[in-house]
Amino acid sequence: MSDSNLPFTRRAARRLLRPLRPLALPFLNRLQLRMAHAVEHSGILLRMEAEARDRADAARLDAEAARLDIEALMQRIAVAQLGVDAIRLDMQQFAGATKGAIDAIRQQLEQALRATGELTTMAARLVQRVAVPLGTEVMVRSPEGYLLLPAEDDRLIAHLIDSGGRLEPGTITVIQALIKPGDTVIDVGAHLGLTVLPAARAAGPGGRVIAVEPGSRVAGLLRRNIALNALDEVVVVHGCAAGASPGKARLSIRPVLGESSLINPITEGPTEEVLVQPLDALVPPGTRIRLAKIDVEGYELEVWRGMTRIVADNPDLALLLEFGPSHLQRAGITPAEWMSSFVQAGFRIYEVEEMKGLVRPARPLDALQQMLSVNLLMLRAPLSEYPALRTA
Q1: Residue 320 and residue 374: Cα distance in Å, rounded?
Q2: Which pTM value belongs to this model?
Q3: What gap in Å lies between CA 276 and CA 279, rounded to an integer?
Q4: Residue ranges covered by each domain of the chain
Q5: Three-state DSSP class for 307?
Q6: What number of other Cβ atoms are within 10 A of residue 98's Cβ?
Q7: pLDDT for 236-249, tens place per residue?
Q8: Could you give the CA distance from residue 146 to residue 165 in angstroms, rounded to a whole number?
Q9: Coil, strand, or helix at residue 284?
């Protein structure tokens, strides 16, 4: 549009601004350039915003997909866990069934072993059931050797034949567990050698068994049994009774010779005068004694009173005594008095289980008094000093 056509005010403004155009042109150009740049940058920003929005959308989609994948994975893990649990349950059931079968087999094996052991024992006893009549004696075979028995003692002969030569098998097992080669042992009430022979075998050639037996008939057979088994170098026999002081006493001879006693007889019968010696007089001073076995039908405290030096000189001495309430009653001794004599000397009391050959802490005195007879092991040393001794 030409200037003539413009209103007067516009024409006047153009005339006034025309000289300024050269001066404003650079500014306008820069303004135009900046505006172009701004437009361009705004486009870039819009594109970047769009791209960012697209990336955010993609990220949301990826996150959603990942969440779905994780849920699917968790489901698979849960299914796998169910499978593992099922396998574990099957294995537990299998293990339980297997353990039951193994336990049953083990029990059957144990029963078979017990039966085999019993059969072996019975077979050994049958083999050992040898009894040879020799006039006034009968020779019977035992695990430790041959024994000459008085032919008139029918009960003893029958018992030994039936038991394979051992009247008190558990006591013999305990004796053998206590004695080591080279030990010295005292056997008071040695009888025919039922415990002397096992003790002599355990002590060996370097050991010694001091056997004390008062009855002339029994002491004579004991000496012959020692010679019969070639144990003369190990066993020394004293044909007297052991007591509190030297002297003489009447021995009541019983039909079962092992029940003969120095205390009041149960019934009237034959007697024999015998010598009495304290063990302290029969055993040389300084002799180390491993075990003293005393079976004298209620006369134990008299034997005990005659061995004070032996007890004092041997702090690790073991005692093996018969506890018979009926014997003590005839002797006028209470079981409490009898027991306290040993307990006060520092001995701990154990019972011998004859069928098993082991020892266990003694029952209370009231319970022991109800028994006909029981062999008691008395120790001052701890059980650990006797590793071969079996305990309950």
Answers
A1: 10
A2: 0.68
A3: 10
A4: 119-165, 168-385
A5: coil
A6: 11
A7: 999 999 999 999 99
A8: 9
A9: coil
